[in-house]
Amino acid sequence: MAPTILHLRSETKHLEHRSALTPATTAELIKAGYIVNVERSPERIFDDEEFEKAGATLVPEHSWVDAPKEHIIVGLKELEEEDFPLKHVHVQFAHCYKQQAGWENVLARFPRGGGTLLDLEFLVDEHGRRVAAFGFHAGFAGAALALEVWAWQLNHSEPFPGVESYPNEDALIADVQKAVKEGVAKAGRLPRVIVIGARGRCGSGAVSALKKSGIPDENILDWDMAETAKGGPFKEITDSDIFVNCIYLTSKIPNFVNKESLQVPDRQLRVVCDVSADTTSPFTPVPIYTVATTFDKPTVPVDGLASGPPLSVISIDHLPSLLPREASEAFSHDLLPSLLTLNDWQNSPVWARAKKLFDEKVATLPESALQK
Fold first, then answer.
1. Which of 17, 77, 87, 88 is catalytic?
2. Could you give the CA distance from residue 224 to residue 256 in angstroms, rounded to a whole number?
3. Edge-to-edge strands, sheet with 312-314
4. Helices 169-187 + 201-212 axis angle, to 10
5. Residue 19: CA atoms inside 13 Å, Cβ hemisphere, count?
6. Is residue 325 scored above 80 in pLDDT?
């Protein structure tokens, strides 16, 4: 039986430095009999040579398009918005299963070309728990940025400037600690932060960043399902300086906060970090903004507020790329047991569940999307 060939594509999303495969996981796959082709990439946090030393074959950027149909294309973030049909099996995050804007155009490319999407966001074990997720580092980076934005807003009238990836966690925390000191000098106190979803991967990452940045326990309101069971909107959010939303939703619940709840005269809230960043999803519990932000422009203001301080929203959908090496290493390590079964993915429970979900979502496509 011929070895299975995996093709790691170069990411095209601006400032996306993470990778679904690392040199370490690549070496393990090769040891298990896989052939791994790795596209050269100027953006990836790992040097091309690191993959070559691990035994991978380096290939040109974007060569996945012309790779043989039986090669499995491994990526991270969504493909560029093109219209040509997709013939391969793709392993990636596609952001098209929750009725996001343009979802039908993204998804329809797969059945139109005879391809398959195995979406990393929906790879789950027999208990429904995701086998690998960037949640911890998403929450960590989101809370860290939220602290920086809080301090910046207190000392500047212009929008928070663009940010870049950090080489490691220590460098990020050093910057955040410096910013917090500047904010405290202006406010006369440390910020109060509410984290919703605090018991999950994402929320635990957010709480970890807050504590490492010098925010004491008494200033952190760590909420989860028990605290939100009564249904929002919640006054505790507008009473806080920062709100970090770490909730992942696939159905609608009462909003945690909305435009009406923000109009209270005693609002303290200055910064919202919506880590889920489901900007256009009908399920969002934070319907106070409509613009996805980026590393270049990390915040968007909430307009129409009658009183109180300005309010900024962070809604970056690839927050873990602020710490790309550590985030990639943790994610790829957790994904490796599933990657090792890609040579028989149709019969592997994790991938078979992903294929079943793909088929179910394809069945909901409008006929017009399939006939382009």
1. 77
2. 12
3. 220-223, 193-196, 242-245, 271-274, 312-314, 299-301
4. 60
5. 25
6. yes
The per-residue pLDDT for range 247-274, each reduced to its tens digit, is 977 788 899 999 999 999 999 999 999 9
For 176, the enclosing helix (H) or strand (E) is: helix 169-187
Q: Quickly count: other Cβ atoms within 10 Å of residue 311's Cβ.
A: 22
Distance CA 82, CA 128 (A): 32
Owner of token pair 């010098």: 214
Catalytic residue among 95, 137, 318, 361: 95
pLDDT tens digit sequence for 106-156? 999 999 999 999 999 999 999 999 999 999 999 999 999 999 999 999 999
pTM: 0.82
* Residue 6 CB coordination number (10 Å): 24
- Write the DSSP symbol of residue 159: P
Task: Count how many Cα atoms sit within 13 Å of the Cα of residue 310 in the half-sphere of its side chain.
Answer: 17
Residue of 11, 21, 2 whose CA lies nearest to 339: 21
The pLDDT assigned to 275 comes to 95
Residue 235 is among the residues annotated as catalytic for this protein: no
Residue 1 has pLDDT above 80, yes or no: no
Average the pLDDT over 234-256 and give the result.
92
CA distance 357 to 41: 31
Residue 172 has a pLDDT of: 97
7 is known as an active-site residue: no
| DSSP output for 31-88 | HTT-EEEEE--SS-SS-HHHHHHTTPEEE-TTGGGGS-TTSEEE-SSPPPS--S---S
Using CB atoms within 10 A of its CB, is residue 91 exposed (0-12), middle (13-18) or buried (19+)? buried
Residues 6+ apart with CB under 8 A from 57: 35, 36, 37, 38
8-state DSSP, 309:
S
Q: Which helix (H) or strand (E) holds 280?
A: none
Task: Number of helices (H) and strands (E) in the chain: give both, helices first.
Answer: 11, 12
Render the burial of 275-298: b for 16+ CB within 10 Å, e for the rest: bbbbbbbebbbbebbeebbbbeeb
